[in-house]
Amino acid sequence: MAKKSWGLPYMGSKNTIAKDIVDTLPKGERLVELFCGGCSITDYALKNTSKFERFLVNDLNGWSPQAYVKALNGGFNYEERWISRKDFFRLKDTDPYVNMCFSFGNNGKTYMYNPALEPYKRALHHIIFWENYGPMEDLCPQVVDIIKEYCKGKDRKGRRLASGYAVADHIKQKGLIEYW
After folding, report:
1. Percentage of the chain surpassing pLDDT 70?
2. Which of 36, 61, 64, 41 is nearest to 52 (CA)?
3. Residue ranges, the chain, pLDDT below 50
4. What is the pTM of this model?
5. For the chain, what are the domain ranges?
């Protein structure tokens, strides 16, 4: 059984101790989560207890509480954008999805993918979200048929897993990754 995660993925997340922290807190009107990061404590308390009526999340990185609240309200349910390096630097200061999801370690400063891997991640994104194999065909046509076979009849999650395995082998063979 998969381990349950709380809040947004975030470097230094309190996800693994969220339950323990909430269990030790007394019941009260408001939970104030300072240094909330990915809001794992708030998320756990909100979804698993009735100890608090209201919640206040705060962080030096103002994007993380904004992104959490937007995600909680379904704001990212239909998010399918691919964010390139150029898009990231253009949008990171105005868009919580871009700032949090496409920055390395959610730091909001550096782009997640190095230049050599970015085209492969983009091609995978096209396969996973839109079943569009064109970008991958341009990069490495020798693996497209394998990916199509692995992905046949699978939903988005299945395509993510299947295509990842096939492309990882190709990238490794080309020497783009030194350690796997």
Report:
1. 92
2. 41
3. 1, 179-180
4. 0.72
5. 15-72, 118-174
